[in-house]
Amino acid sequence: YTLGFAPPISVGDMFVCMGSSASASGGAAVATGKKIVAFIGDSTFFHSGMSGLANTLRQNRNVTLIVLDNMTTGMTGHQPHPGSYVPGAETPPLSIEKIVRGMGVKNLAIINPKDMGKSMVEARAVIETEGPGVIISKSPCPMYDRKVLKTATLRGLFGSLVLVRTNAKLGRYDVVDLAGGPSVRVNVPVA
Question: How far is CA 32 from CA 15, 28, 62, 101, 119, in A?
């Protein structure tokens, strides 16, 4: 998931192309002999992630796939996908949880990223279990929530601000809204 590569998060060892995490992670697990944690967005899961997960399950690869489910295609303009709520649609959104359970995933956690403490405990349990697992991090994109679902509140959008030190020498901090809002860079004079 490309947004995690940039500061202040700065995680990730490999990025190939959209949707590759669900497939490439199985090969990486075999090549390294280590547990691989891969990220994929919900819309990408629907268009190219399910086949990679199926192979991971069939081959019993040591992979945890984390699906970042914000209920929309957030990076490209909030287009709906099969898991999105669409007002007036004839059918309900597809459930990622039901899909992965139907594929045979037993090591599964559904987490709310706004509850960081509980999420970390539940995610760690899945990641530390040998074999395939899935974590669904489910929380609406704040902009989608405001525009389409119309349930977001100011508290929900901006109630989880934290400072992350990104460069101690320069006194640089990034303000991160854990609820999904934009980051702000703040330079603090170094004494």
Answer: 16, 6, 10, 27, 27
Of the candidates 77, 65, 69, the one whose C-alpha atom is nearest the C-alpha of residue 26 is 65
pLDDT tens-digit series, residues 53-84: 999 999 999 999 999 888 776 666 667 777 78
Q: Enter the pTM of the model.
A: 0.72
pLDDT, tens digit, for every residue of 6-50?
666 666 666 666 677 888 899 999 999 999 999 888 888 888 889
Rounded CA-CA distance 182/190 in Å is 25
- Beta bridge partners of residue 73, listed in sequence order: 79
**C-alpha pair distances (Å), 45 with each of 19, 36, 61, 73:** 7, 17, 18, 11
CA-to-CA dists, residue 74 to 33, 41, 136, 139, angstroms: 34, 9, 16, 12
Tell the residue number behind the tokens 């609406």, with chain if given. 140
